[in-house]
Prior knowledge:
The structure holds three protein chains of three kinds.
Chain A: H1 4-17, E1 22-28, E2 31-36, H2 41-50, E3 55-63, E4 71-79, E5 84-92, E6 98-100, H3 109-120, E7 123-125, H4 158-163
Chain B: H1 5-8, H2 11-17, H3 21-26, E1 36-40, E2 52-58, E3 61-68, H4 76-80, H5 85-93, H6 100-115, H7 121-150, H8 155-174, E4 183-184, E5 187-188, H9 196-218, H10 222-228, H11 236-241, H12 247-251, H13 258-261, H14 282-305, H15 324-327, H16 331-342, E6 350-358, E7 361-369, E8 377-381, H17 383-387, H18 391-395, H19 400-410, H20 414-418
Antiparallel strand pairs in B: 1-2, 2-3, 4-5, 6-7, 7-8
Chain C: H1 20-35, H2 40-49, H3 56-65, E1 70-71, H4 77-86, E2 109-113, H5 121-130, E3 136-140, H6 141-145, E4 166-168, H7 175-191, H8 197-200
Parallel strand pairs in C: 1-2, 2-3, 3-4
Helix pairs in contact in C: 3-7, 4-7
Amino acid sequence: MPDAVGLELLAEELREADGESVLDTLYFRDKGVLIVNPVTIRATLERLRGKGFDALMSVHGVDYYPEEPRLGVHYELLDMGALDRLTVKLRVPLGNPVVPSVTPDWPTANHQEREIYDMFGVIFEGHPDLRRILMPEDYEGHPQRRDFPIGGEPVLFTIDESDGKAYTK
Amino acid sequence: MSTDVTRTSGYRQLEESITMAPLERLGTDELDQELLTLNMGPHHPATHGVLRLLVTLDGEVVRDLKPIIGYVHTGIEKTAEDKSYWKVIPVVERMDYLAYYFNAYAFCGATETLLEVEVPPRAQYLRVIHMELNRIMSHLVWLGTSALDLGAISMFWYCFRERELILDLFEQSSGQRMHTRYIQVGGVAEDIPRGFEQKVREFTAVMPGRADQYKDLLANNEIVLQRLRGVCPLAEEELLKLGVTGPLLRAAGNPWDMRKATPYCSYDHFDFKIPVGTEGDNWDRFAVRVAEIYESVKIIDQALDGLPEGPWITDDRKVALPPRHELATSMEALIHHFKLVTEGFRVPPGEVYFPIESPRGELACFVRSDGSSKPARVHMRDPSFVNLQATAPMTEGSYIADLIATLAMLDPILGGIDR
Amino acid sequence: MAVKREKLVAADGSELSSDKEDFRIRQLRARDMLRGDLEGENLEKYMEERVLTTTMDKAVAWARSNALFPATFGLACCAIEMMSIVAARVDVARFGFEAFRASPRQADLLIISGRVSIKMAPIVRRIYDQMLEPKWAIAMGACSSSMGVFNNYAIVPADKFMPVDVHVPGCPPRPEALLHGILKLRKMIQDDPDMGWRDGHGARGTEEVVAAEADPTHPTAVNVFRPGNTGGA
């Protein structure tokens, strides 16, 4: 993991190339985190690839309800040569949940971005095939948002059956 | 190396050399050269779990492949937000259902990082022993079912014979065969019983011989060699671009294994090798996994030799349940027990990504905590979910039979893919 | 499961005598019947006396129960334990059930092993409909019987969309437990030849293809296709 100083230097270099790309840095539990601007995410990841982080291990979404901007997308980068890991986070509001897709540069993000779209409703611009991956095609709603109800059935016991509350009559 | 059999095998010449004379007599039309889209699954004997593949075929040659998943989607990540950290462990264990110790460890490791609790060395060694036993068990099930797909049906019974030995060990230490909830936050649920070490040693004495038997049965078999050697290779750069890790990447020549690269949980105390392949075809994937069985046996032996004395779970009463005998004498123990069982421990706010090496690749758990006793977001980065994207590039231009063999060598576990 | 036992009585209601001579007479009559020598009135009288305790139904039920063909239908973790019953330690071949058929047309037992997600439920139903009668279903594990460990938006208990005969609890159930469930099903089939399972589960009309004159507007008719109408499949 780049240490705290290394993280700040990295953020400086990125800011030199594009002033608004890095919004914040965070060093938490021995791991560096960069909070970046969603609009320039592709360029930021390319610059990080140039710095050695050439493996994108995971792309996942988070719902920060009730804080705004509500939807977050995290990219986990790995530098296999230097054994470094780095997290890149971005936040988008619910009203405009559009993030440029990194799939053209990093093919591994294909299914993972589809999953974020399915579960959170983040729209990835430029994704070759953005549709639901885990839920049925015609499902409405984005299940992993915090205000989506967890759902479920009431548990059926034998006494309910004799009361006539069976699942099927 | 191109996998397009039409170019390398004279397929087209063969096709064109067939005369249509007998069919013309019957008055039939010319054969269509259209592409046929075939739906395989989700209920199909050869798809491991409920995987649906839309395969576009040109004769018997696969031109395109689209996997459709979601048929076992269980909403595990959403359920985990509803439960306290202790209760999330059994929920998350059922994700990749052949590597349950790894699922539990990824989640517990992430929570321990957030809580900043120390895991005692005995607990780390016990975790390693159980995880390596689980790795062997996962590879055995993979071997049995893959050989079944290839047609070597009797391998299934031999592999499951060994699997029963491992499940007996799991039952001895935790009481359950599968989904044992043995790895807890801060250590392991219970110390190993008397006689466990001896039983594990009996197993590790026997296992390398059994693995030799499997190699005798399969490795020189003409049919297995023809079906696996040189079939559906994929270059290392392609695999890295697709995010593939684990035995698939190691088969292509890249020795990335987190147990050696970024050791966790005392793996750096053990001496073991990483099997690496050369060509990245199905044969290398098969050989790498069988070789990993031997290495895991070595790790278990070393862990038993060096098993330190001490507590099996952290002493921090705010995280781990106090031992039962203390409840009769100490008031604080009673209060801690009550708080832990009803509400659970609170975790300081933060976000952590904890990666480990599971039998299929990099398994990681992302936990976001908002300071309460329930996690605000749990995401499992499952290796099979990412590895599945490599199916299409691997099987383009090969036959359907090669597709089945490649799916078997890919070792997808749909529980992890769909979560 | 209460097993009804009936005392043997003669055709006129009197108890059969346990006298040695009478017994010998009955033995000879049984032998004659087996040889086909009894005819007409004698045969009817004999059948009424029910010297042989099995009837056709019971014989058929015995044959059906000992030759169940399970369908290979593994969904999730329970599928691994279902594979374990085929393995050598808990050997389901002792009972004759090791021939797992891949095609639902050839299977008569559907073991729903694993969690049924909402995307998979219509497919499970379709496979169940494709099976020919008589067919049985075992809901293996907690997830398919009730909601199991996961009580959320993504799972459906199997009872909601198909009739289930035996529920096997466990997460996952031990292979021995699943075998116990299968043997319980076998006993159910043996003891009650006409299980009336369609009535018991309100499953009339669950056949996939029915005769042309069937009424598709019948309230319990589901998946009723007229010949030629494949329902979009």
